[in-house]
Amino acid sequence: MSISDRDPKTGGRPAAPTLLARAAAADLRADRRLATAIDDAFLGDDGRLDDRARAALAVTLESLVGGLETTIRAHAARLLTARALPQLAGLIADGVPALDRLRAAGLLRDPELMHELIGRVRQGLIADALPIEPPDRADQPSLLARLSRDPDQRIARGAVALLAAEAHRKAPIVTGTTLRTDLPAAIHRRLIWWVAAALRDVAAGDIDALDRALAEAAQRSIAAHDESDGLEAASTRLAAALDARAEELTALLTDALADQRLSLFIALLGHALGLGYGDVRDLVLDPDAERLWLVLRALELDRTAIAHIGLALCEADPRRDIEHFADTLDSIAAIAPEQARVAITPLLLPPDYRAAMLAVARGVRA
Amino acid sequence: MSAHEPVLPLVRGLVGPDGRLISADQRLNDLNARAGGALGEPLAVPQLARLARLAQRLGILVSRGVVAADGADDLQLWVRAEPGAAGVSLTITGWSGRPAWTAPATSGEAEHAALAADADWRWETDAALRLTFLTPDVGTRHGFDADSLLGQPLTTLFLLGGDETGGFPILGGLAMRERFEDQPARLRATGEPLRLAASPRNNIRGEFVGFIGAVTVERPDSAQTIDDAGGAFAARLDTALRAPLGRIIANADSINAQSDGPLRQDYAEYAADIASAARHLIGLVDDLVDLQAIERPDFHVAVEPIDIADLARRAAGLLAVRAADSKVRIEKPALGEALPAHGEFRRVLQILVNLIGNAVRYSPEGGVIWVRAEREGAVAAVIVADQGKGIAEADQARIFEKFERVDPREPGGSGLGLYIARRLARAMGGEITVDSAPGHGARFVLTLPAA
């Protein structure tokens, strides 16, 4: 900022036309604000994000997009410098944040991206709020520490990998290293291209060279992405290694919740049912939870086990109602496993088919 | 619940399947009676009745913290409700008056953050002291296989040593399940010397479930101070403080401006105080970053042709609003007056803003500050004179020292401004001098090589 801009005697003058223009547009802005406020007032309560989830979602978005942006900017700037375009390299090294541009373009409303991120954020918030149960004996390690010493190497390695993946998710992203987004490959790829496209709008210069550099930087980030690195993948691998028999599953599920490992809980259910992680996460995070109770009954969990799981989830998730759960527990326990298995068969259909059914239903309703 | 609180005897009671209190220890019976209940009648403390009913219906042990009203007071109770054949047995521990405000017991986030702020890296354990978390890239940075240590006992990572008095702070921490710090240790894999600190993690019932710990690497020159730390210190200070302070100021200003709705006037004024204190801290950060820069051996200033009469006008202009607020008039060099000299533009401006700012601060209401540019042979000088209370001869050397103030009783200022200003002037081949007498104002003279 130049000195004269801060001088109170001259500071006001250049702003005057802008001020007049803004004043002229004030009616329109007030109208838009009113529309937003009206929308806000009549938003349905069902499905709304609470403040914690909204804040966590904003932080997640910021760190993901910000991290990808930093990586792409740095790599593109290196490429441009190597190609003797230092001025362009300087321009791409900083500029309008990609997040602002993507938000303005409305791209972040993408249902698949938001489904993934909201699921991840809710999973994280609930996991953090799960009541940790101290072990029965003071020297008994927690679930994953115990599994990390399992004689079966696949299980031991899987438990260590899950601890490492949890640490990655929890610790702030360290700048200067390659960013791990833990996103499904398709969403990761889409987000990278969006960020690259949002960065191309620098003021001046050789736009072709810039496009080439950004595209190369984006492709490099896509190539470096390994879906199997993430927390969800690590949980799924551990669940597969454990390959729990029915009688072990109950204890593992309650122990996973008591150790705040919601991702392992989800993966254990997924493995037992043969369902994908994302599908099981949806039904575990659903505050109404009817599908979850059916699934637990289909896996032959008894009343006590379901009570433990329901209590833990109600304690951790303010959207759930413990009184309602206690009222329905008897009817949940009364469902025969065969009956429950029949009721959840639609869940076991191919995911694409279910997505298509949902799309058709949505269209008919509209 | 901290380990230091006296351990109260357990209080027990039994609630029948129909919700009636079958038996109760004295304390529970009294509490129930004060709530209007009696043995054989439905349990009259609503929170306890609800918990008993919940445990009854779920058929499993439910354990929770409960806040119950007892007359005009609140009681904080830790209750275990366990259903059995005869009904639900209640076991109550931690019977205590509820403090005015309690931090959420689960998170420990504040302590966590406080530990992490100073730490090089972090670790966490479960209740059996098995490692459950290590800062992700710590292995790469410090040369050991971090992932293979996850799930292992804490002692496979650290080799513990005694502190200066031969004690082991960690032992006290483990025994009492409380915060410990300054535990000397070595990284078992590399022998790197470290200091450990940790605070306990508790679950919602206040039960110990592990430690959250921080590691500080012991550097050979461990007696580092602000003065001799590397440039990294300044960079960290800058990023660690400036952004949060900026947020504090922005939020406090918007509270003060009542932009989200009306507010009681005194609260709005507190917000203004908060903003002004935070601005003061940002000023201090600026000073410390400058201080750090000028005390580095490789510090240099650019020497370029400048017009210090113009700079004096600009500096006076920058302070015009503050002067008007204090009802002080600044007489600056006339427009068109020029005095060429050698120095770095922004550094000279910084010095002049400091000198004139001091003059504004110490001027009486209605006072005048004279800013003049004069050439004396090979030297170009800017003179800043005020009508303040002046500086005693004995103090005139002291005020140029670090963390000294013209008047220590005055609020505001870091005590670094004049020290930094003089160091900058000297780096440009110039000097700052003062002459003053108590009651007769002060005259600061900045000299630079004339062009």
UniProtKB/TrEMBL annotation, chain A:
It comes from the Bacteria. It holds the Pfam family DUF2336. It comes from Sphingomonas panacis. This is DUF2336 domain-containing protein.
From TrEMBL, chain B:
The keyword Kinase applies. Pfam families: HATPase_c. The keyword Protease does not apply. GO terms for molecular function: phosphorelay sensor kinase activity. Keywords: Kinase, Phosphoprotein, Transferase, Two-component regulatory system. Its EC number is 2.7.13.3. Residues 236-451 form the Histidine kinase domain. It is an enzyme of class 2 (transferase). It catalyses: ATP + protein L-histidine = ADP + protein N-phospho-L-histidine. This is histidine kinase. It comes from Sphingomonas panacis.
